[in-house]
Design goal:
This protein is α/β, with parallel strands linked by helices. The chain is 41% helix and 16% strand. It has one domain: Collagenase (Catalytic Domain). 32% of the residues are buried.
Length: 164
């Protein structure tokens, strides 16, 4: 796992180790192929607004964006299809994707009581950042909340992961 911290952003309320544990737990729960890697970019509202506009067609910042690199079938069994000529146990690391998180927004949402899954939770900035990293990682694994049934399942899994 790589953590990229943009210059000039607020200090992360969550240690690199805590971020790595949250990502690892979500990858495991999302049945991501192993060995795998993820890049987490800790940035600000300005960069998230640029990414949101460019990739989602939405104006304004958001708290987290995910950029999956694997097809959905990679998560069916938690492993990639065999690579021709590569014996089991010697698989190359597979990059699941990248996550961009606005540390600025995570801190503000937590302090203003607009955090959590419901957007009305006042908790620590560390808890909010952990939720956003978990949420972003599940998106890398193909989880979505576009329809109510999928949202219910994704939110339940997030709660389980955050309770650990």
């Amino acid at each position: 796992m790589d953590i990229v911290r943009r210059a000039g952003i607020p200090a992360s309320p969550l240690s690199d180790g805590s971020i790595a544990r949250a990502v690892g737990a979500a990858l495991l729960a999302g049945r991501a192929p192993a060995p795998g890697s993820v890049t987490v970019v800790l940035t600000d509202d300005e960069e998230l607004a640029d990414l949101n506009r460019e990739h989602m067609g939405v104006r304004g910042p958001t708290d987290v964006l995910s950029f999956p690199m694997l097809p959905p079938e990679a998560f069916d069994e938690g492993r990639m299809p065999p690579e021709p000529g590569v014996p089991d146990g010697r698989r190359r690391r597979v990059h699941a994707g990248d996550i961009a998180v606005s540390v600025e927004r995570a801190i503000e949402q937590a302090r203003a009581g607009r955090g959590g899954q419901t957007g009305d939770v006042r908790w620590s900035p560390a808890d909010e950042l952990r939720l956003l990293v978990t949420h972003g990682t599940l998106h890398l694994c193909g989880w979505d909340h576009a329809d109510p049934a999928h949202e219910t399942a994704m939110r339940a899994l997030e709660r389980q992961l955050l309770e650990r």
